[in-house]
Amino acid sequence: MDELEHKYEVEIKTTEERQKIPDKVKEELRESGMMDEKGKLKLKGVSPKMLKKMKQEYVDCPVFKENIHFVQCFVCPNFQSRVTGKVLCKGDKL
Ligand code: SF4
Question: 74: closest CA among 2, 21, 15?
Fold first, then answer.
């Protein structure tokens, strides 16, 4: 596999706490058809089991400088891929 160009390798952390996706992000997800009216996520290529896991995950984002729900990170324009517990992040200013 080619080495993707990325600026950051961001560690994926897990939490037992319930995490909320910000309303603005939910709106974007709905607009792009990745969330239905009931707020259920529909991500392509992501199984329900994986999704359940993703909901417990977050990253300490180096761009937004705060903890970001993994689902939000996954759909972020800077997201390149996920490898062994890390997100390869382009690191562009958003
Ligand atoms: S992909 Fe987006 S949300 Fe994820 S770490 Fe990079 S800038 Fe932050």
Answer: 21
Identify the residue whose C-alpha is closest to ligand 1 atom 5: 61
Tell me, yes or no, whether 45 lies in a domain.
yes
CA–centroid distance, 61 to ligand 1, in Å, is 5
- Vertex 22 angle, CA 42 and 88, to 5°: 70
Looking at the structure of the chain, the number of domains it has is 1
88 C-beta closer than 6 A to ligand 1: no
Does ligand 1 lie within 6 Å of residue 68's CB atom? yes
Q: How do residues 15-50 score in pLDDT, each as one tens digit?
A: 999 999 999 999 999 999 999 999 999 998 999 999
- For the stretch 53-65, pLDDT in tens is 999 999 999 999 9
Q: Is residue 19 in some structural domain?
A: yes
